[in-house]
Design goal:
Helix content is 21%, strand content 35%. The protein is of the alpha+beta class and 113 residues long. The strands form two sheets. Strands 1, 2, 5, 6, 7 and 8 form a six-stranded antiparallel sheet that branches. Strands 3-4 form a two-stranded antiparallel ribbon. It has helices spanning 22-28, 34-39, 60-70; strands spanning 2-7, 12-13, 42-45, 48-51, 56-57, 83-86, 91-97, 103-112. The chain has one domain (2-112).
Length: 113
């Protein structure tokens, strides 16, 4: 199995909740407090809205699973990424957040057989 990670490495600015359509806040992010909705770090990627809390850290259990699937012990393409959210068992979106937390880079990953 082979892991493919695709990104253009562009830095993008997070947007506040004031720039997210109200219906999106109401239906997709109703679990956030009013304060989090107002000042939260939102982004839109490939037509889908995300909040930074949608991404989970790339912990050792996930990486161990990738190593078992690929049989590789080399450095992982995920090493420089801070979080991921999956859209299937084998694919998803990765995020890298700047040191100051104001910008991010985003990409997609897929595990191919």
């Amino acid at each position: 199995m082979r892991l493919e990670l695709t990104t253009n490495n562009h830095e993008r600015q997070f947007v506040t909740g004031h720039r997210v359509p109200m219906n999106v806040l109401k239906w997709q992010f109703d679990y956030l407090t009013a304060e989090e909705q107002s000042f939260g770090n939102f982004l839109r990627y490939k037509g889908h809205w995300y909040h930074v809390s949608d991404f989970t850290g790339l912990g050792s259990l996930f990486m161990a699973g990738i190593e078992r699937s690929t049989g590789s012990t080399e450095a992982s393409p995920f090493d420089s990424w801070h979080g991921r959210t999956s859209d299937s068992a084998w694919s998803g979106v990765v995020i890298r957040i700047s040191e100051d937390g104001d910008t991010y880079q985003i990409g997609t990953y897929i595990l191919r057989g």
